[in-house]
Amino acid sequence: MAEQEKATRVELPVVINLQDPIDVFEDGDPDHLVREIRITRKVQARDLMGMKIGGERTFGEMLELLASLTGQPMKVLEKLSMTDASSAIDVLGDLMGE
What we know:
This protein has one domain. Helix 2 crosses helix 4. The protein is globular and about 40 Å long. The chain is α+β, with helices and mostly antiparallel strands. It has four helices and two strands, in the order H-E-E-H-H-H.
């Protein structure tokens, strides 16, 4: 069991470099690009309020969890490319031991 725990342990912070940076204000200004998102803390019970236990989570629920752990507003995370969103959701699964 110790090996399994070691395999799923994720060291914080987790930096997810975005393949498709997000232009926050959609103004073309490179200073307004989000190039990475950082998960800086572990998942806490408060982060899972309203989610079903043991059930499939919706994509929206996973984005809300990501917003909670990164401090990024939903309006930014909603602009993630599917490639970047999939990478972020994979990391969330690791953090939750899934």
